[in-house]
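Form P-L/3: holo structure prediction, ligand magnesium ion.
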Amino acid sequence: MEKIKEALSDDLLGKTVSIRGWVYRIRSSGKITFIVMRDSTGIIQCIASSENLNDEQMKEISSLTIESSIELSGKLRKEPRAVTGYEISLQSYKIYERNENFPIAKDLGEEFLLDNRHLWLRSREFTAVLKIRSTVFKAFADYFYKEDYYQVQAPMFVSTATEGGSSLFNVDYFGEKVNLTQSSQFYLETLIYSLEKVFTIAPSFRAEKSRTRRHLTEYWHAEGEAAWYSNEDMMADEEKMIKYIIDEVLKNNLEDLEIIKRDINKIKNIKIPFERIKYKDLIEKSKEFGMNLKYGDDLGADEEYGIMVHFDNPIFVTDYPESLKTFYHRPDPDNPGEILCHDLLAPEGYGEVLGGGERIYDLQQLLDRIKENNLNPEDYYWYVDLRKYGSIPHSGFGLGLDRLVMWICGLSNVRETIPYPRTIRRVKP
Ligand code: 4AD
Ligand code: MG
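OUTPUT (holo model):
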């Protein structure tokens, strides 16, 4: 049994090959039936004719429908007119399942396709995106293993908020109200005192009402935390990680990028180091783009789009005003009101894919910030403890893997990056 990709080879010309998979396209013209078969590795044209098959078999083959599952054997030949350049002339076959009517066809409404996501995700484009996504997840982990980080796991049921109460999902936990995690950051921070450099890949949950092209209520969050790291040290690891992931995609997924018609040059030309721009300078610069932003304004999806359509390389935006970020960020001792943090904004209008920076490691400073934010220090006793026992400077980051895949693939909505997107309006299938 060959995988289709193996069968697309001059080495097997004239030989009998066997493949199994699903009917991708089928077309009959009188005495001949063309079936394009697909498996996880690709597609290949097969031709059924009365030369090799009897009348009954021909009838059976020509009445097959899209997504029926079959196994078949036949001689391989070159056929320049076929989709992938080769053709199997069918000699024998076995049908596993014959469809009555596969519900996915062209020009169907978006809601219908989302309801039928479990079937729609077989499409060639979506398969290509999922292969790229698989490379992205692996490359992220590989990069940090290479840099001597340890992979760790944090809980998803939690009793604290890291990114503010408004986007918390509450869960009934045996009668107690707990939350789904917004970020594993605080747990990663607890682990640097033994492992020093750690990362995790896990879901994060945000009850955000924002209906934008880049928000999911459940997304895949790749987070890292490193002892002794400054804001700049962290950015240096991150940009190398991003470059490494892109290079791995270019190495492993060229065909997939082609299937989704991604302009490869857009990602091939990404260069490190990424430019660092202070928030206040970016606000100034945005005037060049005809934007009307003032110091202190938050940058949301629209603002970042307006800025990043003018860039073809990612940028780090640093030193945001304290008022725009959560309480754990370390204020810059030299520039009151600003914090030692960064967001990584992706080009072509994509905007934020990563946020990170230095964490407060002074006990009193952390307690003050917790109180200023009207949070209860008792809820954060374990996080506060870290500042009492062997506190050290450290930094970390969180990267939205779905958003990274969206940018690498050049997609217009983050929903197109994940098999089962969770949004405000959808939790099925
Ligand atoms: O900027 P955020 O909220 O930062 C944190 O959660 C930090 N605690 C991370 C850390 O330092 N360990 O989220 C980090 C990233 C964002 O830059 C974005 O890419 C992604 O997570 N993200 C989302 N992706 C999809 N849907 C959402 N609703 C997202 N919210 C954040
Ligand atoms: Mg952020």
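COMMENT: The chain has two domains: 4-97, 115-417.
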